[in-house]
Specification:
single chain, 4-stranded antiparallel β-sheet, binds calcium ion, Arc Repressor Mutant, subunit A, 5-stranded parallel β-sheet, 231 residues, elongated
Length: 231
């Protein structure tokens, strides 16, 4: 089996060196670039398994790079972790909005970095297809065909909006979604949504989950995430 290949796009030499060193030590193959434009060509050449993308880059910034990757068939599903400055929640929201899979705040520990890379690789690309797939997660069983949700074997009643929201979140454990993404992807297209405030729906779902309300985690300033048992 060949090593997992990571492309790191980062304009600060110290951080780039630190990331590269730690990834190599863990057995990853690494290629680097110090600008967005160079990064795109390195990605085209190296065909990586995952990209670590700094948000603030000279010229083409991280958001532009991510948009371009998502616009091209060959890199549409390429996992991207956005690297942002700590405390810049609005940057994270923008990054997730243009299709980044996850984010990590600077400064991060090598352990945190490796864990994040492994988690994103494990999760794989976003599953948009197959809305009829049964989802089983710990005590929770979601059966879209029968339109039924059971917790510890007990059936719970959800509104169509709540059902879609929980189904969507539970289908992507460990992935953080912004409120806008949840409205568009989980709630907006099929259900008749009376309240456009996603927090209201999340609150209702949590209440019904009772002791398992913690399955849906609030990510402060950003959105919501379904708990990933392994992460
Ligand atoms: Ca930078």
């Amino acid at each position: 089996m060949s090593a997992t290949k990571v492309v790191v796009i980062e304009d600060e030499p110290d951080i780039l060196e630190l990331i590269e060193y730690n990834l190599r030590r863990e057995g990853f193959e690494v290629a680097t670039a110090t600008s967005g434009r160079a990064g795109l060509s390195v990605i085209g050449r190296e065909k990586p398994d995952i990209v670590l993308l700094d948000l603030l880059l000279p010229g083409l910034d991280g958001l532009d790079v991510c948009r371009r990757l998502r616009a091209v068939e060959s890199t549409r599903d390429l996992p991207v972790i956005m690297v942002t400055a700590r405390g810049e929640e609005s940057d994270v929201v923008l990054g997730l909005g243009v299709g980044a899979d996850d984010y990590i705040h600077k400064p991060f520990s090598p352990r945190e970095l490796i864990a994040r890379v492994r988690a994103v690789l494990r999760r794989g690309p976003m599953r948009v297809g197959n809305p009829d797939r049964r989802v089983v997660h710990g005590p929770l069983v979601i059966d879209p065909v029968k339109h039924r949700i059971k917790v510890e074997g007990r059936r719970l009643e959800f509104t169509p909006t709540e059902f879609r929201l929980l189904q969507f979140l539970a289908s992507h454990p460990g992935r953080v979604f912004t409120r806008g993404q949840l409205l568009d992807r989980a709630v907006g297209d099929r259900a008749v949504v009376i309240d456009r405030n996603i927090d209201v729906h999340v609150r209702a779902v949590r209440k019904k989950l009772g002791p398992h309300r913690g399955l849906i985690r609030t990510v402060r300033g950003i959105g919501y995430c379904f708990r990933d048992e392994e992460g």
